Amino acid sequence: MNEFVYNGQASRVVFGVGSLGYLEREIELLSARRALVLSTPEQKAQAQMVADRLGSKAAGVFPKAAMHVPIETAREARDEARRLGADCAVAIGGGSTTGLGKAIAMESGLPILAIPTTYAGSEMTPIYGITEDGLKKTGKDLRVLPRTVIYDPELSVGLPVGLSITSGMNAIAHAAEGLYAQDGNPIMSLMAEEGIRALARALPAIRRRSDDIDARSDALYGAWLCGTVLGNVGMALHHKLCHTLGGSFGLPHAEVHTVVLPQAIRFNADAVPEAMERIERGLGTEGGISAAAGLFDLARMNGAPVSLRDIGMKASDLDRATEIAVSKPYWNPREVDVRARAAIRQLLQDAFEGTRPP
Ligand SMILES: NC(=O)C1=CN([C@@H]2O[C@H](COP(=O)(O)OP(=O)(O)OC[C@H]3O[C@@H](n4cnc5c(N)ncnc54)[C@H](OP(=O)(O)O)[C@@H]3O)[C@@H](O)[C@H]2O)C=CC1
Ligand SMILES: O=C(O)/C=C\C(=O)CC(=O)O
Predict the structure, then answer these.
(1) Residue boundaries of the structural domains of the chain
(2) Residue 239 Cβ contacting ligand 2 at under 6 Å
(3) Is 38 within 8 Å of 90 (Cβ atoms)?
(4) How far apart are CA 70 and CA 100, in angstroms?
(5) Is the separation of the CB atoms in 309 and 255 below 8 Å?
(6) 282 in contact with ligand 1, CB cutoff 6 A
(7) Per-residue pLDDT averaged across 95-107, rounded?
């Protein structure tokens, strides 16, 4: 076994159907007295339900979370938290809402209690992102790691099937890249393989019946594991491409992960055969279908997009996307520099057309 460093990150996870019922207890364990509840505008009713449950321990509801945390929203939320004397933020929703909680915590140190309803995994990471003047800045700060996470599968039943599949693929992407991370370790690899297994089992079942609570539980369990991997080890080419396509070309976050993942995994496959074996074991395709093709099939068979063309990319932007991706690459097991330009351009072409990897 290679040398490794494993850093446990302290967060408390309360998991299970109906676990929202433990909210008051969990707020008390944080020694909080006034929680500001955050959500997107569309999930305001759910946030209000949480605030009603907290009664006098709720400072108010701030239902203005938006994708990629615009700095103006972050400032407004910070002011509101201060004005209301909040000593804790409860974020109910997906990565956008958790991200807003992180923006508050970064400045004020308020503890976050996250209640995820998508599979993006932000609740398990110390990674924050804020967008200012059209540019998204990301970084790591342990203050933004939610102290408590309540995973209640009942709350994700309302997530539309299409979003459930792409969000699940977003989670799988964290695990897949965690399996070949430069700073990877055996514990994260165990979590990554098990996370892929849980999601590969859950997504087809959710497609068949969106209120299948066992499948929703499996998916949330997988999201927890995959998010933990994202929070503990570095990501590589796939995440760089997605951040480029999302950040510079405005493509939707979970969909872009879904489309790019099979192509990025194909690009890296020969450099990291052990990781490929683990992805295949997780997907249940070992000995038959490659990791890249297995991921492509998982998306396509469950009705998710598999081509950049279908999610709004213009063919004329592929060259510029290639330049951005190779100009400041993340570490990757197969080198990505200007000499790899032609191979990255081909990867993006395959993603654009939705070509099934061999
Ligand atoms: N820092 C980190 O570690 C990470 C950050 N992220 C960031 O998080 C964002 C992506 O997260 P993601 O979760 O995909 O995005 P969102 O939080 O924007 O949620 C995605 C979609 O899910 C819908 N949704 C969420 N909950 C429900 C629900 N209960 N019922 C119905 N619909 C629901 C939202 O609808 P509606 O808008 O109507 O509420 C939205 O359209 C990106 O900004 C990404 O960069 C992602 C992963 C990790
Ligand atoms: O961009 C961020 O907010 C931070 C990380 C991610 O979005 C991870 C991902 O690409 O899913």
Answers:
(1) 12-156, 161-353
(2) yes
(3) yes
(4) 9
(5) no
(6) no
(7) 98
Contact 35, 214 (CB under 8 A): no
Which ligand 2 atom sits nearest the alpha carbon of residue 242?
A: 10
Residue that has been written with the tokens 């995973």 in this structure: 151
Q: What is the ipTM of this complex?
A: 0.98
Collapse the DSSP code of 235 into the 3-class scheme (helix H, G, I; strand E, B; otherwise coil) and give the result: coil
Distance CA 228, CA 181 (A): 13
- 132-162: pLDDT as tens digits: 988 889 999 999 999 999 999 999 999 999 9
How many Å lie between the centroid of ligand 1 and the Cα of residue 97? 7
Ligand 2 centre distance from Cα of residue 49 (Å) = 28
The CATH class for the domain spanning 12-156 reads alpha beta
Tell me how far apart the alpha carbons of residues 12 and 80 are, in angstroms, rounded to a whole number.
26
Q: What is the pLDDT of residues 20-64, one digit of tens each?
A: 999 999 999 999 999 999 999 999 999 999 999 999 999 999 999
Residues facing residue 61 across a β-bridge: 37
The structure tokens listed for 87 are 């000593």
> What angle is formed at CA 195 by the lines to CA 112 and CA 299, rounded to 5 degrees?
105
Write the pLDDT tens digit of every residue in 307-346.
999 999 999 999 999 999 998 899 999 999 878 999 999 9
Give the predicted TM-score (pTM) of the model.
Answer: 0.97
Three-point CA angle 237, 184, 175, nearest 5°: 60
Q: Is 250 helix (H, G, I), strand (E, B) or coil?
A: coil
pLDDT at position 134: 83
Please check whether residue 181 is in contact with residue 235, taking contact to mean a CB–CB distance below 8 angstroms. Answer: yes
Could you say which of 1.20.1090.10, 3.40.50.720, 1.20.1440.60, 1.10.1040.10 is the CATH number of the domain covering 161-353? 1.20.1090.10
CB atoms within 10 A of CB 348: 24
